[in-house]
Design brief:
The chain is built from 12 helices and 7 strands. The strands form 2 sheets. It has a 5-stranded mixed beta sheet, sandwiched between helices. The chain has 2 domains: 220 residues, Rhodopsin 7-helix transmembrane proteins (Rhopdopsin 7-helix transmembrane proteins, Up-down Bundle), CATH 1.20.1070; 122 residues, Reverse transcriptase/Diguanylate cyclase domain (Alpha-Beta Plaits, 2-Layer Sandwich), CATH 3.30.70. It is elongated and about 80 Å long. The chain is α+β, with helices and mostly antiparallel strands.
Amino acid sequence: MIIPLSDLTKTSIYADVSAIILLLGLLLLTNRLRKRAGFGEKLFSKLTQLSVVYAVFDIIYMIIRSGDLGQVNGVLAMTAVTVVEFVTLVLIYTWLLYVDFMLYQSEDHVLRHYKMLAIPFFVLAVVLFLNCFFQFMIELDPDEIYDFTGPYFVYIAFEYAFLIVSIVMIIRYKKNNGSMHYTNFVPMGIPVLVGALVSNTTPYSAFALGLAIGLVFLHFSFMEEACYKNEEKGYFHKEYFERLIEHTKNGEYDPRGAIYFKAEGNREAFEEILLEWIPDDSELLKIHDGSYLFVNEHGRSRITDMLITDISEDTEKYKDGPISLENELIVRNENESGVEFLNRLMEETDRR
């Protein structure tokens, strides 16, 4: 049976279907990263998957909301709007995690700051669940079409407050640290903002499409990094040195030290040991076969000392083929600039 839909509903459905196609294509494009996906890549994948779920249920929600179906089952109507609102809530929470990680490149930083942040999101989710039974935010009229009451707009205000928090985070980071290393949220923010404005000020639904276009833009902003990276393993090629120098000149990166590793014997086994210990999304460069350089912003610290100890111990314990390992901690001099330090690293590693 063909359901007669109004032009308004059809337009919204076309926007959601276009979003689904873009998002599924993006998931296929990034699928090759999943063998060794970093924390940021996993969060990006979650954002994309959640956006697909949102677009699918938004189609159902828009058809019911339009009244083109006539009277529908009340449970179906309430389920559709609840799923859309809940997925929106999870999207915002995941977005906050993603922004924090992309700014500070630290899982620990994310976990420290967002365990407590989960509490208000949990409260909002409970409020949304209770609305299914008591309908104090979103009501169904006799034709099972939605009526939004005052408490719903308070609920929405909290969601927008969390989005404003992410914007404040980005502004504060840029103010304190300058440009963001391989991270530019502006191309994503514009289509998402336009989609949200269209959805909130007109009868049309365009948020899913704006979100899909924004995620595509955000993905391609990282394509430059992918040109220098072995995505399957997770390390950078030696040519990435030039990009690090450029980012250091622009104030986007501040290298303080590096650990040089050189392995003889079972080099493939050592590479697996090394990649297991080096944090995801780190500046790990493969200089030659068996030699690697972990450039970091720590210099000499407890973190670097523990890394050297743990990697050395695991290498000594390896039984399937001997591995001879050399390692050296190289620290930036007090009067040495970041660019000078990287140039020195390049010269020293070329001679080895």
